[in-house]
Amino acid sequence: MSDAAPLPSGPDSTRVDRWLWAVRLTKTRSDAAQACRGGHVRVNDRPAKPASPVKAGDEVRLRLHGTTRIVEVGHVLEKRVGAPIATRCYVDNTPELPPQATIPVIRRDRGAGRPTKKDRRLLDRLRSDMPPPPDTL
User: Fold this and answer.
1) CA dihedral in degrees (79, 81, 87, 91; nearest 10)?
2) For burial by CB atoms within 10 Å, which of 59, 124, 126, 130 has the most?
3) Which residue intervals of 54-116 are DSSP H helices?
4) pLDDT digits over 78-90, tens only?
């Protein structure tokens, strides 16, 4: 037996915009509807309108803020619930992003003026030791 509270009862299916809002994948329901209208939501690899039905077992792809989330509906909700319960209502199948190569950024204090000859030589030495930036094609 688990100590987790039981999931709230819900219908067999609901609107995709309502479900995205209820499980906290979007901040507001209007954000979810706007994402659907903009073509950023797909249910089972088909473009979804805000009123498209979603049921348990469906795969929902949501592109929001430059990232794509792939989730499988585990439980259908119509009302917004707390974050711990919301995360139990879907299975997140989003692939992990490869780690970004972090390149140190050389910064000068604001108002420090132009770098001196000594500062420029130091900056050139630091830049030459750094690997070249990765190709962005």
Assistant:
1) -10
2) 59
3) 83-86
4) 899 899 999 999 9
